Automatic annotation (TrEMBL), chain B:
Protein name as catalogued: ABC-2 type transport system ATP-binding protein
Superkingdom per UniProt: Bacteria
Organism of origin: Streptomyces clavifer
UniProt similarity note: Belongs to the ABC transporter superfamily.
Pfam families referenced in this protein's UniProt entry, alphabetically: ABC_tran (PF00005)
Length: 292, 329
């Protein structure tokens, strides 16, 4: 909406730049305080606990973690608890984290529609673009919070159950614990950023339907489908364009020196997904009839 | 503002002086190419009125309200609310409009108060510094202050309805659009809400009220419009609408036969006898009713009661639509 559209006959409304952020704050508290969100975060926090305890029990009898199966970095956890952070993120990134994001993103608009609250937000008036931006922003914050919950839980469990200290990188060099911690933080941010493309996809799906459940199911369904496509060698040609294809590239942050090309490629791909599905969501949401 | 009634019958000369708060021209909504839900609507709501919007279920009332509030794009025609085009000027118009649309929709997991805080922070024009005070005032106004801390999912339908009204009253509004505001309320609650509506109207707020309760419209509205099958049948001051249907002359007597005969001799039409009650179309204005009564008594008819029953809005509605009120269009 341009300034030109505010017709002289309509009384001027005082607009303060900060007031417009009220909806963002409202969105964030609504998203993060909901029982459902807290349950998702609790499940995410439990994953590192389970992994940590399993590894601890497994190594307690002196046999060492068997074979090279399971998530990456599993074998290193016994030597350095910090590796539980990497292992937990590797374990949750393919399924748990995006599923949680899919639930929150899929429900973001469709949930308001099925609850009937969407019409009241729009006549408040929230403004369709403003509401959509606030919704996406709060989903992005959820991506970061969800990743941080996994990382912090893993760090706490790792430090409690295993020794911590210098980190041996994938390249074989050793870096100090402080720098290891820094890299763990950076990895968490990159993992969260890896979810932004999928979050935009979920937001778009959410604008297509008036049923929150349908939107959540469809979003998670797309995730699973794409994950399956990404494993089929016959479809190798399209793999580089699938949003989860480079997700595990965050491990390159554990090389010395860090290899950035795949990480940057991943972030670029996420940006493209965010732009495409964000625009699609905007185009759909700003033109559709709200009949519920 | 002179040709606002193009295509519709206006029941009377009143209501065309005040500036229009809502004005539509040829407003039309067609869903997926089917029969239009709203067809060429020329609606005019004068400022300061309490405007009743009547029609059977499925007559297009809700679609019209949603177009006025910018939730639905019209297929054709224009709508102006508070002088500005909708939906283009939604951002500047809607802060001055409070609305209750197709029933309340609170967030069940939030308290009544937090629901209002949520809706208020959605409005970029709402001052966060006065938010708490305005929320409390709105809760008080609808009689919900005591239950403000309870989760909305524990509310009864009537309480949810009050909460929806409170959301519409978070700011001083120039226009209130209330879709079935007394739905789910007990008689006491209905009375409270009606007196609240009168109070708001007295403060100068224009109230656009949709209802299927004809007596409700008659009790609180100054103006009304009737829709059926997506078309506007009539609009104008309520008094004029009701006057459009003629009243009935009713006589209660133990001698109905003689009464009907004498009334007939005096030119009464549409005579009906039902037990001890004889009724006829109200005679034209020139006839002195007392003379008719005297004629009855002279003719030996023992009259228990005698008088003209004013036509109700319901009579007017039936006369207009030719059908019962609850028939879907």
């Amino acid at each position: 909406m341009s300034q030109a559209e505010s017709v002289a006959a309509a009384p001027r409304v005082p607009r303060r730049a900060l007031w417009t952020l009220g909806i963002l704050r409202s969105e964030l508290t609504m998203t993060l305080r909901r029982g459902r969100t807290l349950a998702l975060l609790a499940v995410l926090a439990a994953v590192p606990v389970l992994v940590g305890i399993a590894v601890r029990i497994e190594t307690g009898d002196g046999s060492g973690p068997g074979g090279g199966g399971g998530p990456a970095f599993l074998a290193q956890i016994t030597n350095n608890g910090l590796f539980l952070v990497f292992a937990a993120l590797s374990a949750t990134l393919p399924v748990f984290l995006p599923m949680a994001v899919g639930v929150v993103a899929g429900d973001s608009v469709a949930g308001e529609a099925s609850g009937g609250t969407l019409r009241y937000l729009l006549v408040a008036p929230a403004g369709r673009t403003r509401l959509l931006v606030a919704k996406y922003a709060s989903v992005l914050v959820f991506c970061l919070v969800a990743t941080a919950v996994v990382a912090v839980s893993a760090l706490a469990v790792g430090a409690a159950l295993f020794p911590v200290g210098e980190v041996t990188t994938i390249s074989g060099t050793r870096i100090g614990f402080g720098e290891g911690l820094l890299r763990a933080g950076l990895i968490a941010v990159v993992v969260a950023a890896s979810l932004t493309g999928f979050a935009a996809l979920g937001l778009f799906v959410s604008t297509l339907t008036d049923s929150g459940i349908a939107a959540m199911a469809a979003t998670v369904g797309v995730l699973i489908t794409v994950q399956i496509l990404d494993t089929m060698p016959q479809l190798e040609g399209i793999h580089p364009y699938l949003f989860p294809h480079y997700w595990l590239s965050f491990t390159d942050l554990l090389r010395d020196p860090v290899r950035w090309d795949e990480i940057v490629g991943n972030l670029g791909l996420q940006a493209v997904y965010a732009a495409v599905f964000g625009s699609a969501a905007w185009a759909r949401f700003t033109t559709r009839d709200i009949t519920v | 503002m002179t040709d606002t009634a193009a295509g519709t019958r206006v029941a009377g000369p009143g209501g065309e002086t005040a500036a229009a708060v809502i004005e539509t021209r040829g407003l039309t909504k067609r869903y997926r190419g089917g029969r239009p839900a709203v067809d060429g609507l020329d609606l005019r709501v004068p400022g300061g009125s309490v405007f009743g919007f009547l029609g059977p279920n499925g007559s297009g009332k809700t679609t019209t309200i949603r177009m006025l509030l910018g939730l639905i794009d019209p297929s054709a025609g224009t709508a102006r609310v508070l002088g500005s085009p909708m939906p283009a000027a939604a951002r500047t118009v809607l802060p001055h409009v409070g609305a209750l649309i197709e029933g309340p929709a609170p967030y069940g997991f939030l308290t009544g108060r937090d629901n209002l805080v949520r809706y208020d922070s959605a409005d970029a024009a709402a001052d966060p510094r006065t938010r708490r005070a305005r929320v409390d005032r709105a809760l008080e106004r609808v009689g919900l202050a005591a239950a403000a801390g309870k989760k909305a999912k524990a509310y009864s339908l009537g309480m949810k309805q009050r909460l929806g009204l409170a959301a519409a009253l978070l700011q001083p509004r120039r226009l209130l659009v209330l879709d079935e505001p007394t739905n789910g309320l007990d008689p006491q609650g209905m009375r409270e809400i009606r007196s609240l509506i009168r109070e708001l109207a007295a403060e100068g707020t224009t109230v656009f009220l949709s209802s299927h309760l004809l007596d409700e419209i008659e009790q609180v509205c100054t103006h009304a419009a009737v829709m059926a099958r997506g078309r506007l049948l009539v609009q104008g001051p309520v008094a004029d609408l009701a006057a459009g249907a003629r009243g009935r002359l009713a006589v209660t007597t133990p001698d109905p036969g003689a009464a009907a005969r004498i009334l007939g001799e005096h030119g009464a039409t549409g005579l009906l006898t039902d037990g001890d009650r004889v009724s006829a179309d109200a005679p034209p204005g020139g006839v002195e009713l007392a003379d008719l009564n005297a004629a009855l008594v002279r003719g030996g008819v023992r009259v228990r009661s005698f008088g003209v029953e004013r036509a109700s809005l319901e009579d007017a509605f039936v006369a207009l639509t030719g059908e019962g009120f609850d028939v879907a269009g």
